[in-house]
Every structure is written in C-alpha cells, then in structure tokens.
Amino acid sequence: MKYICKTNSKGMDYDDFEQSFADYVVHRAQEHHGSRLLSQMYQLRYIEKLCDVQLNVEGAKIWAHKLVLAAFSPYFFAMFTGDMKEAYQSVIQMNEIDAASLELLINYAYTGVLKIHVDSVQSLLNLSSLLQVDDVQVACSDFLKRNLHPNNCLGIRSLADAHTCVDLVEASDRFLEKHFEKVAKGDEFLQLPVEQLVDILTSEDLNVSSEEEVYNAIIRWVYMDKKNRMSCLPRLLKEIRFTFLSPHFLVDILEMEELIRYDWKCRDILDEAKNFHMFPDRRKHHRLANMKPRTSTVGCIFSVGGMDSTGHSLNSVECYNLRSHRVSIEASMASSRSGVAITNLDNRLLAIGGYDGRRYLSSVEAFDPVQRNWCPMTSMNQVRRYHSACTLDRQVYVVGGYNGRSVLDTVECYDPRTNRWRRLSSMGHRRRHLGLVSTEDYICAIGGSDGSAYLDVVEVYEPRIDKWRVVCSLQSRRGGVAAGVLGGKIYALGGYNGQANLATVERYYPVEDRWVYVAPMNQCRSGHGVVPIGESLYVVGGHDGTQYLNTAEKFDQTVGEWHSIGSIGMQRAVAGVSICKNMQFT
Asked: Between the CA of residue 154 and those of 160, 191, 192, what are the distances in Å?
C-alpha cells in the first residue's frame, strides 16, 4: 500500500514525499531468550506446575517436563518419542540410579550449571554415560584427570574403561606408568586381576628405578592371596627384564623366595637368568639377550665438566632425560674439570682427573644419583688430562692422557673393594684424546695423539694376563675420537686427523679383526662423548672445527642411520659423557 503526501500551500513547505511500507518486519529476541525460557520452566518445575512427568528414584520424586528431558538427553528422547510404554506414562520408576546425581543432571538441563564434586563425580560419570550427556561425561573425565593419585588411578582407570572414556584411560595409564612404584604400594594394586597386571608389567614405559621394583611388586601382589595367586607367579616372572637384575639379587633374593624355590617353572626361569649372567661368552646366543631395558632404566645422559666456548674449564653437570627429552642442571662438582674421564661404577658416576684451569688433577669425585650430590673418592696415582676411563668387572681402568709435560702410556686400575689404585702394564703407545671401551672380557684403546702425530693404532688389554696387544688399525687416524660398543661391535666415531674434524664412523668386528666404514654422523665432531642405549649410540657435544657443540644425534644400528636429536644443553667439548641408570624420572 502506498501513501502519497502533497505539499500544503497553507502550511509548511514540504517537498513532495512518497514512502513505501513493508508488509512485515522481523523481530529478534535478545540473546538470552532461550535461557530465560528455561529459567521460567525451571521455576515452574520448582513449584511443580505444568510438569508432565514424575521420576521415582530411590524413594525420591523428581518432577520435570518431558520436552526438556528429551531435548537434553538422547536417552530420554528415545524414551518419550518412541514406542516405549514410558512415552505414555506420567510416573516413571527408574532403578539402579543415584537420585542425587539425577537431580543434579536435571537441574543442569534447565540451568546449564553443574557443580562436579569429588564425592559426586563417579556417580555423575555413570549417569551421564547412561543418559548420553556427552559434555558432562567429558567434564567428569577432565575432573578425574586432574585428580589422579597413586591411590586412585587404578580405580579411575577401571571406571573410565567401563564408560569408554578413551582420554581418561590413556591419562590413567600414563599416570600409572610414571608413578608405578607408589601405585604398587597401594591397596588398589593388590586387587588387580592377573591379566591387567601382566599388561602393566609389559610396558616399556614403566617408570622404575630398577627391575628389582618390578619383582617386589609381583611378590607383594601374589602374597595378598597366596593360595589362589601363587600359580600365576611363573607367568608374572616372565615379564621381569632379568638381564638388568644383578647376579647378587638373583641369588640373594629370588633364590631365597620360597614360592620360587618350590615351583619348578619358577626355578627354570631363575636358572635361565642365572646362566645368562654366569656365562658371558654365551650371551649373544641366549634368549634373554634380546631383552630391552625399559625407558626409565636406560637412564639419563650426563655431560660432566668439559670446556666452554671461551676455553674455561667447567664444573657444571647437565642431565638429559631420555623419558621427557628435557635437560636439567644437576649438582656441580667440587672441581672444574676439562679433559675429564667419566665412567659408571655400581650406578654411580665417577669423574676422574682433568684440568681445573690452574692445575692438572688426580682427584676423583663420585655422583650419587639418589642423593644427587658429588663426594670425593681416592685419588689416582698421577695427574691426568685428556685420558679415558671404563669399567670392567667392577674395576675402573684409566688409560693414557697428559700430565702437563708429556703424553702418557700408563694405566691405573681402581678396585672398590680395597679402595685403592694400582698400576698396570703400560700401553705400547703414548696416547691422549683416545677412545676407550670395555667388552665382556677385554679393554680396547683406540686412536688418539702421541703429542706429535694422530694415531690409527688400536690396542687391546686382557686383564687376566695384564698384557696389551696390537690389533687391526683404524682406516683413518683419529685424535679426540669417541668410542662405544653396540651389539658386540666396537665403534670409533669422529675425531681429528691432523687436518680436519671428522664425521666418519668405523665399526670393528672382533672375530674378523677388521674395521669397516658405516654411515657418517650428521656433524663433524672431536672431543665429543658417546653412550650406547638399547639398540642405539647417542653422540653428544664436541667441536666441529669452528665452534663448540651442544647438539646430539643417535645412530640406530637396526637401520644403520643417524638421526638428529637437536640441542640438549650448553655448548661444551672434552666433557665426560656417560649414562646413569639409577635415577627416578619425574
């Protein structure tokens, strides 16, 4: 419809005006329209007006509107819109449901507000799962994740599994693995069914300080119901990584356990483990030789002392956590030490000799991974820098080095039983910056420098006869070389040949007495460290000919390739690098 307004000559002088009006307009309610309606319906429910359904639960009567319940829950939607008898009933009996939780959820349907309390979360999770209220189920799951504890994680895991809360199951599993030693001391652990216990024990990521803790947990679980569970012991013992238990523990603890002593299946498992330790020359053919350490027990990589990019000797210690891939700063040594030798004895790190910036050292410090501190030990017979150390049969061997005047060919051995160092036969060549490794029955000194030339000479020391002998030479001269043992083969990695730093790697086959080149590292390195872990060699730090390095890389012998790990601490060279296996991960 059109309205036309003409100018009135007697009144105001308007221009001709023509306006068109629409047939309709759209009015939109304010954004809180829906919540206002629900709020009003909630008030009606509160005074029990216009409600068309009464839910009887555990003697309680809960009034509601079918329309609201059907819109809120697929469970109620199916009940009220299908062919079920409840669709035509105004009073509905609901069994095996917690009345308080149902009241909370129906209030939430009207208000959109729900208080989840530690005392109500389990029943809310049960009911929200039944009623298919997904957002409440997720909220309960998130609440439980934040409240995981060694005393409740197994119960929460079982609850999550029953309601297919995948994220909560995974979170509970990770928590259990991380805090296994505490969980194993709780009451929930003792109630585990054997199948679930086996699943837990097979985990590569079980965070334990040693396999002894796995054994202790098994025995505690069995003794909880000895009569019915002792038959499960052989199956559970098979999940222990016996190659990482000490012979003393096998003999003093396992062999003395009556449940093992009187079960022939258990005795067979124990005998197999003892044979592995008793006959080192047969290990490579032994079934247990294929056992891998758990992620937690392979330990942390320690970088100890060394020299920074300004040339100063360091007393700082860095620890690379193989579980979290993070670097932490550990307690510093009492002395700065560059050109230090480091080895592991009885799960303690020994930092031996070095240079503190003023003098060459003969002193020795030991790091306790439990107390996380350093303490002094008996000093060597002479000062040494740029020497190497290794451990064989609980004896510490220190080889070569430099005393501030000359390159050394001398060798010393520390025996913890006597707490003394003694001189051994000297090498055939003077060496500093050499690589040194121990195998099952001998020690191998690789490359180095005699002060005027870089060496390709390799010598082997046999402790039982106190003799050194020359074996096949390296294919490249290497000073500042790192050496490691993996899969029964000896590796010589990087170094300096007198002209350039090297990335090349050689592998020695002892039976065939020959060296062959394998895949080179990603970076040239000298003065670096190397440690074997599982099926891999980890290389840390060093100097690439231009700068000091803080990078690390890993050689996977199964595929013969190097993979970069990235930066794992400060730039340093001629540091001591080793593994400490008795540290609890956090």
From this structure: 10, 9, 8
* pLDDT tens digits, one per residue of 67-96: 999 999 999 999 999 888 888 888 999 998
Q: What is d(CA 386, CA 362) in angstroms, rounded to the nearest whole number?
A: 12
Residue 252 Cα distances to 3, 255, 487, angstroms? 109, 6, 30
Q: Calculate ∠ Cα 404-410-415, nearest 5°.
A: 115
Tell me the one-letter amino acid at 225.
D
Domain count, the chain: 3
Contacts of residue 24, Cβ cutoff 8 Å, sequence gap at least 6? none
Same domain, residue pair 339 and 236: no
CB 400 within 8 A of CB 441: no
Q: How far apart are CA 409 and CA 456, in angstroms?
A: 15
Pairing, β 395-399 against β 53-57: unpaired
CA distances from 259 to 72, 197, 228, 306 (A): 57, 18, 13, 51
Strands 458-462 and 411-415, by their bridges, are unpaired
Q: Cα–Cα distance between 532 and 538 in angstroms, integer?
A: 6
Q: Per the structure block, which two tokens stand in for 533?
A: 């872990």
User: Where among 271, 290, 309 does a domain terminate?
Assistant: 290
Domain boundary among 257, 290, 323: 290
Instruction: For residue 320, give the 3-state DSSP assignment.
Output: strand
Structure tokens at 508: 């020695």
The DSSP symbol for 238 reads: T
Distance, CA of 540 to CA of 531 (rounded, Å): 9
Q: Are residues 487 and 543 in the same domain?
A: yes
Residue entry with tokens 């258990």 = 266
From 426, 479, 470, 423, select the one nearest 450 (Cα to Cα).
479
Determine, yes or no, domain membership for 147. Answer: no
Whether residue 9 is predicted with pLDDT greater than 60 in this model: the reply is: no
* Residues 324 and 370 both lie in one domain: yes
**For residues 488 and 438, what is the distance between their CA atoms, to the nearest angstrom?**
11
CA distances from 435 to 80, 387, 399, 407, 528 (A): 79, 9, 10, 15, 10
Environment class of 326 (CB within 10 Å of its CB; exposed 0-12, middle 13-18, buried 19+): exposed
Confidence of residue 10 (pLDDT cuts 50, 70, 90): very low
d(CA 87, CA 94): 14
Per-residue pLDDT tens digits for 295-330: 776 678 999 999 998 889 999 999 988 767 789 999
Q: Is residue 11 part of a domain?
A: no
Residue 27 lies in a domain: no
Neighbouring C-beta atoms of residue 82, cutoff 10 Å: 9
How many residues does this entry show for the chain?
586
Does the reported pTM lie above 0.70?
Answer: no
Q: Is 298:533 a contact under the CB 8 Å cutoff?
A: yes
Whether 8 is covered by a domain: the verdict is no
Asked if 498 and 468 count as a contact pair (C-beta separation under 8 A), the reply is no
* Cα–Cα distance list, 32 to 39, 67, 68 (Å): 10, 19, 17
- Burial class of 478 by CB neighbour count within 10 A (0 to 12, 13 to 18, 19+): buried
Q: Same domain for 237 and 314?
A: no
Other CB atoms closer than 10 Å to residue 258's CB: what's the count?
Answer: 8
Range of the domain at 566: 300-580
DSSP 571: -
